[in-house]
Automatic annotation (TrEMBL), chain A:
Pfam annotation, one family: ABC_tran
Membrane topology: Peripheral membrane protein
Localization in the cell: Cell membrane
UniProt keyword list: ATP-binding, Cell membrane, Membrane, Nucleotide-binding, Repeat, Translocase, Transport
Keyword set includes Transport: yes
CDD domains: ABC_Carb_Monos_I, ABC_Carb_Monos_II
Lineage: Bacteria, Bacillati, Bacillota, Bacilli, Bacillales
GO CC annotation: plasma membrane
Protein name per UniProt: Heme ABC transporter ATP-binding protein
Automatic annotation (TrEMBL), chain B:
Organism encoding this protein: Paenibacillus antarcticus
CC annotations in GO: plasma membrane
Protein name: Branched-chain amino acid ABC transporter permease
Assigned keywords, A-Z: Cell membrane, Membrane, Transmembrane, Transmembrane helix
Primary location class: membrane
GO MF annotation terms: transmembrane transporter activity
Membrane association type: Multi-pass membrane protein
Subcellular location: Cell membrane
Statement: the UniProt record of this protein carries the keyword Mitochondrion: no
Cell membrane among keywords: yes
Record Pfam families: BPD_transp_2 (PF02653)
Length: 513, 355
């Protein structure tokens, strides 16, 4: 192959952090005009590698070649100069600014003393048309959707002349429809001669769009494969290092009595909008009910209402026939509701606490842990040790600060803690967000095990695959209302996707069965 | 465990280097100003340890600094910045003064009640800040500093109206029965004004350590300080934790005020400014990293430097303000650990590789 066809080549990149080799002699080639997926579990070293390419870290060994020329990338500015652009997972945008202002931020075109906004927005418009971004250069960031914000990030790199684009988990925040559009955009980018590195652990996207896939495990390249010669099963096994079960194994559900019942719930936000608009449903012992929906359609309010973290304007919530509406979180938790929160860093954990301090977060006031106002450190540590063992939490010790652990193990702590409370109802919000294949499998098995023990599980997720795989019954939430009820056996992703977009109704506004 | 050790070493490394740098920079300033820094530091040390009286007086200087450090530190640990310790001191003084002048009780008991009322006054003053934050969402930084002034003028009003010593700018003296001086220890220390505060400060440091790390309320306090959202999720009553913490913070401040009235001055002077001790408390808590032992050590250091600075002006003609500069330098380097690391980068890298 001609050398000039290689846009970016890494040769033997090694990066060590205290106690860990994040990248162990990593080499791979990004051909011009291809989409090259970088696949690996959390903590495999993908992000470290990309931060090296983008100039945020310096490798201890190895070389980076760009267009066949050896390059020293010692800062992001240098990377941009060399034509490398990065679309971060968490957008770096100034919300009240317009699209154009955000794009030119840091490299403003001057016209005398003034910033040439007009010229810049013209250029943005041109780029937008060239790649089919369909974006309004004068709209402010806070007025456009998450998908559009991501496009702003992409244009930002193109505006700075990027030829090599790095996408860091770009679909994590998008709706199914937005994902389709993003993949279209990526295809158009490579058609125009750009080269793309796609960091992801979603196999479906790799199969659909990537040309080559390099699999990284524990800081080492396992293999670079041509995507059309492989299949998802093979990719997953290479990533995890063992056989993976995709289809979650579970027996049919045997729902019995109603455990949790929501009746005509209404939550009105500060602007007077009905974020929950007369929601009713019931949750039976021995079933998993999935709440499908695009982020921001009332899921957060629903979970927080059910767990007492948010007050309800009207309606009732019954736990085994007793009203718990507007009770305190403590009260609801003690009555037998466990809650795996949506945002584990914000709500689920105190990151600066140790593993053992986090395992007692919900139950520290119980007499087994606290006697006469003093915490029994031995009882606490015994509990932590037991949970670490039972749930296979990978940690150097129970004194380890939780913030230094991987996302999967952090989530295991929460799940262990919430299951250990032996609840009647388990409310799991986005329980697998940001987790890799192995950890996702673990979480799903745990939820199903809870169901099989006769508990009621409410699973709120933005991932259709997860809902279809795990839930026994599906409710679709759109604009604060339940717009459909179905079962995984009788629906598919397309139909659910339409319902989630509010374009299709089925099953009526979920009557309590 | 290994990581933990590095962290611990690191957390000691910065303050120690900061102290050394502060003293060196102070010496440099003296040298430039035409003073003899070695003589100055020598006279400072003589002043601190020169006689039993001096040691006693040094301890007297240290006690309120440690207490104020604890007051600031406990609010820090709950995620708040209490800059109203000055006001809490004033309220504590007022409470102790009222009991000390207006009520008749047997000795010992009188002092005890006066201390408790002073602590309560300070505590309530602190709790008010907590209440305003918890229920109305008003920043404790704003309310606590404003309440400093309110406390100052309220206290003056009460003294002027009810307890003014005729013809002076100060209150009446407290009754002898309310004195908390420890005469046996004072005699032992050559007449230095040592009082119960010495014992209470030690107890306060122990209380702080145990409360934060061993009790349920301390666990809640730290959870709220690190992550109030998670605390709420965990069913903790965040508002109550905030009010409770500010009450304790205020009690520490109130005790300082009570000690001053009952153990040192025996009256309250009408002054146009607050003592500023609360602000020294910020320095102490910062240098001490908000831990019990850290606050104790940094309170001892700053207290000793403050008292020793008097010796510098006698012995070497150096203005005492230089020591305020030294303290300022130390706090500066602690608050900007990046500078310390930058200066000691080669050394720092070495220790990292070893580990």
């Amino acid at each position: 192959m001609n050398k000039a066809d290689i846009a970016l080549e890494l040769k033997g990149i090694t990066k060590r952090f205290p106690g860990i080799v994040a990248n162990d002699s990593i080499s791979f080639q990004l051909k011009r005009g291809e989409i090259h997926a970088l696949l690996g579990e959390n903590g495999a070293g993908k992000s470290t590698l990309m931060n090296i390419v983008f100039g945020l870290y310096q490798p201890e060994e190895g070389e980076i070649h760009i267009n066949g020329v050896k390059a020293m990338i010692d800062s992001p500015n240098k990377a941009i100069e060399l034509g490398i652009g990065m679309v971060h997972q968490h957008f770096k945008l100034v919300e009240p600014f317009t699209v154009t202002e955000n794009i030119i931020l840091g490299s403003e075109p001057k016209r005398g003393m003034r910033i040439d906004i007009k010229g810049a927005s013209k250029k943005v418009k041109e780029l937008s048309e060239q790649y089919g971004f369909d974006i309004d250069p004068m709209a402010t960031i806070d007025s456009i959707s998450v998908g559009m914000q991501q496009r702003v990030e992409i244009i930002k790199t193109l505006y700075r002349g990027a030829d090599i684009l790095i996408f860091d988990e770009p679909t994590a925040v998008l709706t199914p429809q937005e994902i389709i559009e993003l993949l279209e955009i990526m295809k158009r980018l490579v058609a125009e001669g750009k080269s793309i590195i796609l960091i992801t652990h979603k196999l479906k996207e790799i199969m659909e769009i990537a040309d080559t896939c390099t699999i990284i495990r524990r800081g080492k390249v396992i293999e670079s494969v041509t995507v059309k010669d492989t299949n998802p099963q093979e990719l997953a096994e290479k990533m995890v290092g063992k056989a993976v079960n995709f289809k979650t194994e579970k027996q049919p559900a045997h729902p019995t009595e109603v455990l949790l019942e929501a009746k005509d719930l209404v939550v009105v936000d500060r602007n007077g909008k009905h974020v929950l608009n007369h929601i009713s449903f019931s949750l039976h012992a021995g079933e998993i009910v999935g709440i499908a929906g695009v982020d921001g359609n009332g899921q957060t309010e629903l979970i927080e209402s059910l767990t007492g973290m948010q007050s309800v304007n009207s309606g009732d919530i019954l736990l085994k026939g007793k009203s718990i509406v507007n009770h305190t979180p403590r009260n609801i938790s003690e009555s037998g509701v466990s809650h795996i929160p949506q945002d584990r860093h914000k709500h689920g954990l105190v990151l600066d606490f140790s593993v053992s301090e986090n395992t007692i977060l919900q139950t520290y006031h119980h007499p087994e842990i606290t006697k006469r106002g003093f915490i029994n450190v031995n009882a606490r540590d015994d509990m932590a040790t037991r949970l670490v063992k039972e749930f296979d939490i990978r940690t150097p010790g129970i004194d380890t600060r939780v913030g230094s652990m991987s996302g999967g193990n952090q989530q295991k702590i929460i799940i262990a803690r919430e299951i250990d409370k032996d609840p009647q109802v388990m409310i799991a919000a986005q329980p697998t967000r940001g987790l890799d294949v192995g950890a996702i499998e673990f979480v799903h098995q745990q939820l199903i095990a809870q169901r099989d023990q006769g508990k009621a599980v409410l699973l709120v997720s933005f991932e259709l695959e997860e809902i279809l795989n795990v839930a026994d019954r599906i409710l679709v939430l759109f604009d604060g209302q339940i717009v459909g009820e179905t079962t995984p056996e009788t629906t598919n992703e397309q139909e659910l996707g339409l319902m989630m977009a509010g374009k299709y109704e089925r099953g009526g506004s979920s009557e309590t069965k | 465990m290994k990581l933990n050790e590095i962290f611990k070493r690191e957390s000691l490394f910065v303050p120690i280097i900061a102290i050394v740098l502060g003293l060196v920079l102070g010496a440099l300033v003296m040298y430039v100003g035409g003073y003899d820094p070695i003589l100055a530091y020598h006279s400072m040390i003589t002043q601190i340890f020169g006689s039993t009286f001096d040691i006693g007086e040094t301890i007297r200087t240290i006690v309120p600094l440690v207490m104020c450090g604890l007051a600031v530190a406990i609010s820090f640990r709950a995620g708040m910045f209490n800059i109203g310790v000055d006001g809490q001191i004033i309220m504590g003084s007022l409470g102790a003064l009222i009991v000390g002048t207006q009520i008749d009780l047997p000795p010992f008991l009188h002092g005890l009640v006066a201390i408790l009322v002073g602590a309560l006054f300070g505590g309530l003053w602190g709790a008010l800040v907590g209440y305003l934050k918890a229920s109305k969402g008003i920043s404790e930084v704003v309310t606590s500093i404003m309440l400093n002034f309110i406390a100052l003028y309220f206290s003056q009003l009460v003294i002027n109206q009810f307890m003014l010593q005729e013809g002076t700018q100060r209150s009446q003296m407290i009754k002898d029965s309310a004195s908390i001086q420890m005469s046996w220890l004072s005699n032992f220390a050559g007449g230095a004004r040592i009082h119960w505060g010495f014992i209470i400060a030690i107890l306060a440091v122990i209380f702080y350590q145990v409360y934060l790390n061993k009790t349920k309320w301390g666990y809640e306090l730290r959870a709220v300080g690190h992550n109030p959202h998670a605390a709420n999720y965990a069913g903790m009553n965040v508002s109550r934790v905030i009010v409770r913490t500010m009450f304790i913070s205020g009690v520490f401040g109130g005790l300082v005020g009570a000690f001053d009235v009952l153990g040192v001055f025996k009256y309250v002077a009408i002054s146009s400014t607050t003592s500023g001790l609360g602000f020294d408390g910020i320095a102490v808590s910062l240098l001490g990293g908000n831990t019990a032992i850290g606050v104790l050590l940094s309170g001892m250091l700053i207290g000793a430097l403050t008292y020793g600075s008097q010796g510098m002006s006698f012995g070497a003609g150096v203005p005492g303000e230089i020591i305020r500069m030294v303290i300022g330098f130390i706090i500066f380097f602690v608050a900007a650990p990046g500078i310390v690391r930058l200066l000691f980068r080669p050394f720092h890298k070495k220790t990292k590789k070893e580990s």
